[in-house]
Here is the input.
Amino acid sequence: MEKTTYIYGIRAIIEAIESKKEIAKVYLLKDADGVLMQQLKNTARKNNIAVSYVPVEKLDHLAKGNHQGAAASISPVKFHNLETVLENTDIEINPLFLLLDGVTDVRNFGAIIRTAECTGVKAIVVSEKGSAPINAATIKTSAGAVFNIPICKVNHIKDAIYLLQAFGIKSVGANEKTSNLLYDVDLNIPVAIVMGSEDRGINPSTLKVLDHIVKLPMQGDIASLNVSVACGAMLYEAVRQRL
Here is the structure.
């Protein structure tokens, strides 16, 4: 299994970001200050890189040297540009896309990637901020599928939905509060399935721009499914309709 690579030291991380390395996340010492540290924070923010503030014990574990209060994980995959993927996609074959609006658990993310690859998803779209990183746990849970499917990062999931709609691709999102069942929506068209975060679901502002909002029927006392399980049910309904 490919392990996550970490770099450390403030200047080294700034240089890596500015040289367009695929930085998954920056880890900074809580309450750390100084001119260089502020420059790193600004550089990460300008490049839409997630920052996590951690205790020194975390940094000591990640970095095997003088980390200066900063470490960063390098993504093992190269992210794709969604517009480029769309321009190279034949809409006539009814492509299937998957958008993840805030899935943060790496194992859920890995399981979703694995199912997406098995169901013929053309590309997975995640937001720059508030999404699970691709690390060793993601790779393991995906069974290596992370290397077989394009993953695109966007500033906001709404931007991706608007872009997909411009290419004639409808969006279908999961939300348990609707009365519309998944099985009543035509998925044998160019379509993007949209799944929300583990705790709050799809962002309310994202819900407003979807073409369809649907739910899976629930027979038990628990009101919701694990997001990776729900995503699998949604994707396989698309597969069933296309058979």
Strands lie at 5-8, 23-29, 50-54, 70-74, 96-101, 123-127, 151-154, 170-174, 191-196, 212-214. The mean pLDDT is 93.
